[in-house]
From TrEMBL:
Residues 7-140 form the HTH marR-type domain. Keywords: DNA-binding, Transcription, Transcription regulation. This is MarR family transcriptional regulator. InterPro entries: HTH_MarR-typ (IPR000835), Metal_resp_HTH_trans_reg (IPR052067), WH-like_DNA-bd_sf (IPR036388), WH_DNA-bd_sf (IPR036390). The lineage of its organism: Bacteria, Pseudomonadati, Pseudomonadota, Alphaproteobacteria, Caulobacterales. Pfam families: MarR_2.
Length: 151
């Protein structure tokens, strides 16, 4: 049997790279706005303009239900996100950015995009585009494996 070495194990390397990049970008919003990574992801998704349910946020952010629930509760309590009942279903809550939430996204986005650009410059535009394609393929394969279709 081939030994497992974390330094070269693809899932581990992806997790390490993701954590390091997330931590880098978190500097743009953590101390200044007292936001967690989960809260920032929700603000960023909602900033795309469409109100969403918590379940839709779970799917879009790939965070679990508990994490989304806690993060949105905090964001609503801080008046960064608005919570409204859906007109067609009084049990369903739709979440959207408040003006204060939008202002934070407007301030953080240029910093996040600048950091992204620096990362892209480290590998070049073509490599970044190839990486994007590779990551999508890995995500799709992982999804199929999770669902048992490729096992």
């Amino acid at each position: 049997m081939k030994p497992l070495h974390l330094e070269t194990y693809l899932p581990y390397r992806l997790a390490v790279a993701s954590n390091k990049v997330s931590a880098l970008i978190a500097k743009a919003y953590e101390s200044r706005f007292d936001l967690t990574t989960s809260q920032w992801r929700i603000l960023a998704v909602l900033s795309e303009g469409q109100s969403m349910s918590q379940q839709e946020l779970v799917l879009r952010t790939t965070m679990d239900k508990v994490m989304v629930s806690r993060a949105t509760a905090t964001l609503v309590a801080r008046d960064l996100v608005r919570s409204r009942y859906k007109a067609s279903d009084r049990r369903a809550v739709q979440l959207s950015l408040s003006k204060a939430g939008f202002a934070i996204v407007q301030e953080v986005t240029p910093m996040a995009l600048s950091l992204e650009q620096e990362l892209i410059e480290a590998i070049g535009v073509q490599a970044a585009e190839r990486l994007e394609s590779i990551l999508r393929k890995l995500e799709e394969k992982a999804m199929r494996l999770t669902q048992g279709h490729d096992v």
